[in-house]
Amino acid sequence: MQPTVFITGATSGFGEACARRFAQAGWSMVLTGRREERLLRLADELGGQAEVLPLVLDVRDRVAMQAAIDSLPAAFATLRGLINNAGLALGTEAAQQCSLDDWDTMVDTNIKGLLYSTRLLLPRLIAHGQGASIVNLGSIAGNWPYPGSHVYGASKAFVRQFSLNLRCDLQGTGVRVTNLEPGLCESEFSLVRFAGDRQKYAAVYADAQPLQPADIAETIYWLLNQPAHINVNSLELMPVTQAWNNFAIARG
Ligand code: NDP
Ligand code: 8X3
User: Fold this and answer.
1) What is the pLDDT of residue 61?
2) Residue 10 CA, ligand 1 centroid: distance in Å
3) Residue 218 maps to which CATH number?
4) Residue 164 near residue 223, CB atoms below 8 Å
5) Which pTM was predicted?
């Protein structure tokens, strides 16, 4: 039987790249996201390589998540992998200028959505036991502060601590947990962050040689294929062109 993986947010960026990488290796997969047309097109495209179950789902909808997961076909009774990838940043304005609605959306998606998929799928990962893996998409924004990161960065700091805490509770089950913490990576992430502004989106990546979604997918594939006795607790990666800058000092 082929190994199985459940990927949240498979309609673009890292999630889509993971779907392609795992399909190439013949893994069975559940792919989720809100944009139905994209999801079905991807499932159709990859369906020749692997067993693909597309689920149109909003990770913020706890009732729908529970219903969909409860109804998973028998082939997904046990899961080898969960890639908690669905997430977003909204805006880069200073905290004192930005919208509470945006903060709600980031908390509901990046924190609560990830909690729902994790809790609802844990029994299936534990049923698989040794070798099962959860990869949570953290970020460098959860490790390092920068202006305009406020709730986005804080949501990723939550994901980091939750990932480490999960490891304690899962000890003895064989289930591994990794918090993956990428830096600048070219995807629709910045299009979403800048509310569809293509100029701002392009400026983020211009001449920067950012990471690419395929780089992240390859890293996640590597993580899920490490020998079963190894747990990579956290893994931070950046493009070579990205580094830290000075502390800021307000003068006058
Ligand atoms: P994309 O915007 O390309 O992809 C985000 C994915 O999340 C989409 O498939 C989107 O699908 C899905 N998603 C968003 N909200 C929801 C929701 N409420 N319910 C279900 N799915 C949802 O961004 P990336 O691929 O770059 O980002 C993936 C993850 O990686 C995010 O958690 C992000 O915070 C993190 N990350 C990104 C970095 C980057 O520089 N790009 C760096 C570090 C971390 P749909 O809209 O169809 O629902
Ligand atoms: C995305 C990376 O640096 O834009 O998580 O916050 S960053």
Assistant:
1) 98
2) 8
3) 3.40.50.720
4) no
5) 0.99
Whole-number Å distance, alpha carbon 175 to ligand 2 midpoint, is 28
Domain of 78, in residue numbers: 4-237
Reading the block at residue 250, the tokens are 């307000």
Is residue 93 in a domain? yes
Summarised one tens digit per residue, pLDDT across range 206-246 is 999 999 999 999 999 999 999 999 999 999 999 999 999 99
Give the count of domains, the chain: 1
Q: Which ligand is closest to the CA of 216, given by its number?
A: 1
The neighbour count for residue 152, using CB atoms within 10 Å, is 25
The beta strands (E) that lie in 45-194 are given as: 52-56, 81-84, 133-137, 176-182
pLDDT > 90 fraction of the chain, expressed in percent and rounded: 100
For residue 1, the model assigns a pLDDT of 82
Query: Which of 139, 187, 204 has most ligand 2 atoms within 8 Å of CB, for mutation?
Result: 139
**Considering the domain boundaries, does residue 248 fall inside one?**
no
10, pLDDT greater than 90? yes
How far is 191 from 112, CA to CA, in rounded Å? Answer: 23
177 vs 231: CA distance, rounded Å? 7
The answer to whether residues 73 and 50 touch, using CB atoms and an 8 Å cutoff, is: no
Cα pseudo-dihedral 84, 88, 92, 98, rounded to 10: -110
Task: Identify the three-state secondary structure at position 239.
Answer: coil
Inter-residue contact 134 to 7 (CB < 8 Å): no
246 belongs to a structural domain: no
pLDDT value at residue 110: 99
Q: Is residue 252 part of a domain?
A: no
**What mean pLDDT comes out for the span 196-203?**
98
